[in-house]
Fold:
Amino acid sequence: MTAQAFSTAQLKYIEKRDTHATYTDWVKARNLVHQEDDIGHGGGFLLPVQNFALDYWAGMLERLRRSGKDANIAMLAYSLSDIATFPTQLEQTVAGLKHILKLGYEPADIVLIGDSAGGNLIFQTLLHILHPVPTVDHLGLPNNATPLSKFAGALAISPWLSLTSAAAESYRENRDVDIITDAALSDLGRVYLEGAPLSAYPYVDPASAAPVTWFKGIGEVVDRVLITAGERESLRDDIIKVGKYVKESHPEGTTVIVQKGGLHADIFLDVPLGHSPPVKLTDDIHEWLEGLLR
Structure:
């Protein structure tokens, strides 16, 4: 199998909808109640959430509820990179989290979840708390030493953590195997970073631009961190690198899983491919979430 590289223009032509439209169509097709209140998904910051991701998380939510966990999902429909670039998506994430906290939820009630570009946004958010971006509202969590003042967890699935470099060996090794290529990633990264100052790079490009010391104190911001990568995905080595950074600063609370034979964020194919039982990584994520939720 050979991975197909598309330009950003081609990708945008293929998928003309935004996340709001995708969600609306998904709800209608399944006769569900439309719930909208004026947290991240993948898509290289250019593409909206996809139906298979909504199906996946709906299935995960049902599974958690069957095991006695009371959980809900809030999804952030952030601006795509053909409209706005850094730090707009971070600003929207901070605003969304502040809204949820104003509703009465504690940080300890919240698990941040994102895949691919959404996983990047998770790291932007955590690093913003540690090193505030001057132009973005601060998301300080008071009394960070107490259990209730930090997020319950952060789950980054195949996070895209190097927007400026494709030098890691996994890009060459998996170029003809993974569903996304170094050429496509470079194109998407160039669009997202257009006009961004160098000071932005440690937030959006932590595998290449952030020192390990930037993650110091992350255990005071989030209680548990789960980072996943596919063994055969192009981003694998960058994900493992940042995972080591996080684990060095938060050893007992950080887990890094490399999915055997896995591609980029391929767990979302569980539903359309009808995997039963689901792939092991889905079970691992369920077990991790089950242990976090109160």
Notes: Residues 1-16, 33-44 have pLDDT under 50 and may be disordered.
